[in-house]
Write a structure and sequence with these properties.
heterodimer, A: alpha/beta, 20% strand, B: alpha+beta, 2 domains, 5-stranded mixed sheet, two-stranded antiparallel sheet, 12 helices, 7 strands, 70% helix, rod-shaped
């Protein structure tokens, strides 16, 4: 049984792989799910919502690592939709950590209004120890 | 007729230069002043004549007294007598020196000229008296002969003196009577004429002002000036007009210059912003594969340490893919940068060879036997241009057609057609691929824009490169896209 379940939402396969490997490197006991875009991630979460009635033991992912530039549903579009979902009891404990290569100020500003977004990680700029520290801090803030 | 003549005369005065009018005014004033001074001199001369006559009478009286003394037996002193007679003779002499041609003329006219004859007679009498005195002194004549001579002279002097008074008074009166009205007349004439001239001067100035105020915009000011105004005013207006015109021209030029500077600054700012955006996007897109490769390389070494060689191999392959993407991106950025420079040699382009080469380069992507590259080339006069530009335009469009082919369609294809008419070449690249999402069509030619990130590995620069080349060749590019496919149409002017 894992301590934490996380969902990586990114269209880039290599980026997903790198994050997954880095998360394992942190030494945290994790269960990692992956989705390739915002739409797929939303479907995944909605299914979770339905399944939770049948299997009360399964938890929705505690942390969602979210890319911004994605097809179908971009990171920001996903946040808009997830904000509605987040009001529900089952997702109350979910937090989002942005995981993107974009360092544009506008992007950082436009996500500020979502209180469940706890951190903003820039791809390729973070070490495993750093990642562990940021994850623990995000959870404890929550 | 005389009316017309006066009219013409007045017209000629009105049209006269202002400076000429002013000269006439000055001349008239000089004449008036000279006549006045002349009259004053004449009157003063009259007074002098009167004074001289009084002096003459005084010396006459002295002479007469001396004569009476001699008759009463006094001793004759020739020197003293000579002195007295010389004194008596002096005034008529003075009178004759004072008289000028004009005086003589006037006196002749009014019949007072005989006064001058009286003077001459006095002088003659005095002269003969002096001769008599000299002869007495020499002893040529006796006392009684001298006395008789002197007696005659004294009578002559007194008679002439009495006669001299009236013509002089008459002459002075005449001068006063004639010259003063003449002066008054000339002064009045002067005042009238000067007033008239100054009114014509101010009228022509007012006329000019009026003409400028009510200027008909359809008429040229130069024509107006030529027709209505003459002399210095016309010159003044013409010069002022030229000056104003050149001032306006200068102002227009400087305004134009300012606008030009503003325009340049604006376009420079746009170019600067574009460059900054490009630098950001380019470095961002260059960094992504680099940091991925860095992460992967680290895992490869971890995998090797852990003995998981399969995973290491997989990651090494991933690194390879990242590096290929990076290489492609760098090549595209270079093409984009080179598209702005016109460094290559221009030569006639053989589209058949060009497309054959492109097909060779894209062979790896079209291995799938079902993908058809169809060409339709009909060019009457070969296009002369830098070959690499045409190659990059066609290669990018064709490579997009291959990359975004629609797997659901049975026979994916791309048709390249090139044709020309009298003034342009037209190139179309048509495919039956997946099309461009409708919402993103306005961004098609922007840099680093990818609409199908899940398909293949594009740099987002291909169509930006195409657009740059088309712009460089002064052509235009359009496209139509739907689910049935996309058609790009390029027009290049001959």
């Amino acid at each position: 049984m894992s301590d934490l379940s996380v969902l990586i939402v990114d269209d880039n396969e290599v980026d997903r792989y790198l994050l997954r490997r880095q998360l394992y490197e942190t030494g945290l006991n994790l269960e990692v799910f992956e989705e390739v875009d915002g739409g797929a991630a939303l479907t995944f979460l909605q299914n979770f919502d339905q399944n939770s009635a049948d299997c009360p033991d399964t938890c929705p992912p505690t942390i969602i690592f979210l890319d911004i530039n994605m097809p179908v549903l971009t990171g920001l579009e996903f946040l808009e939709k997830f904000a509605i979902l987040h009001r529900r009891e089952v997702f109350r404990s979910c937090i989002v950590m942005m995981f993107t290569s974009s360092e544009q100020i506008e992007d950082m500003h436009s996500i500020e209004r979502f209180e469940f977004v706890k951190d903003y990680l820039v791809k390729g700029s973070i070490s495993a120890a750093d990642l562990r520290h940021r994850v623990e801090r995000a959870i404890s803030i929550d | 007729m005389p009316d017309r003549c006066t009219e013409i005369a007045r017209g000629s005065i009105v049209k006269m230069n202002i400076s000429k009018k002013l000269s006439i005014i000055v001349l008239l004033t000089i004449i008036e002043v000279s006549i006045t001074i002349g009259a004053a001199c004449e009157i003063a001369k009259g007074a002098t004549f009167q004074q001289l006559n009084v002096l003459h009478l005084k010396f006459n009286a002295q002479f007469s007294r001396k004569l009476v003394d001699i008759q009463n037996g006094a001793r004759i002193n020739p020197q003293s007598l000579t002195n007295v007679v010389t004194d008596v003779r002096q005034q008529p002499l003075d009178c004759l020196t004072l008289v000028n041609f004009l005086d003589e003329f006037i006196m002749k006219q009014i019949g007072t000229h005989y006064a001058l004859g009286l003077c001459q007679s006095d002088i003659d009498v005095a002269n003969s008296a002096l001769i008599a005195i000299d002869r007495y002194a020499e002893g040529s004549i006796g006392r009684s002969a001298l006395l008789t001579e002197l007696q005659t002279a004294a009578e002559e002097f007194n008679a002439n003196s009495a006669e001299f008074e009236p013509p002089i008074a008459k002459t002075v009166a005449f001068i006063l009577k004639t010259l003063i009205p003449l002066i008054i007349f000339i002064s009045i004439f002067n005042i009238a004429f000067i007033t008239y001239l100054s009114r014509t001067i101010s009228a022509s100035i007012r006329n000019a002002i009026g003409m400028l105020q009510h200027s008909n915009s359809e008429r040229d000011l130069g024509d107006d000036v030529e027709e209505n105004i003459s002399g210095e005013l016309a010159e003044l207006l013409t010069v002022a007009r030229q000056r104003i015109r050149s001032d306006i021209l200068n102002r227009e030029l400087s305004t134009e210059l300012e606008l030009e500077v503003e325009k340049r600054t604006e376009s420079l700012q746009i170019v600067n912003a574009e460059l900054a955006e490009f630098a950001y996007r380019a470095s961002h897109d260059l960094k992504a594969p680099l940091s991925s490769a860095k992460g992967l390389a680290r895992f490869v070494s971890q995998d090797i340490d852990a003995g998981d060689l399969d995973e290491a191999k997989l990651n090494a392959q991933k690194i390879c893919i990242q590096m290929e993407a990076l290489e492609k991106l760098v090549v595209d950025i270079l093409s984009l940068a080179r598209a702005d420079l016109g460094t290559d040699q221009k030569e006639p382009v053989d589209f058949k060879i060009l497309i054959r080469d492109i097909k060779g380069r894209l062979y790896g992507q079209t291995e799938d036997a079902s993908f058809a590259v169809i060409e339709d080339i009909e060019v009457s006069t070969p296009l002369v241009a830098e070959k690499t530009r045409l190659a990059q335009i066609i290669e990018n469009l064709v490579s997009n057609a291959i990359k975004y082919r629609d797997a659901k369609k049975e026979k994916p294809f791309v048709i390249i057609s090139v044709s020309d008419d009298s003034d342009s070449y037209s190139l179309t690249v048509q495919d039956n691929g997946i099309g461009i999402p409708e919402a993103r069509r306005s961004e098609v030619f922007e840099m680093f824009k990818r609409f199908h990130p899940d398909v293949g590995a594009g740099t987002g620069l291909g169509l930006a490169i195409v657009k740059k080349h088309v712009d460089y060749l002064c052509g235009k590019i359009d496209f139509e896209s739907s689910e049935d496919g996309t058609t790009f149409a390029v027009q290049i002017p001959k």
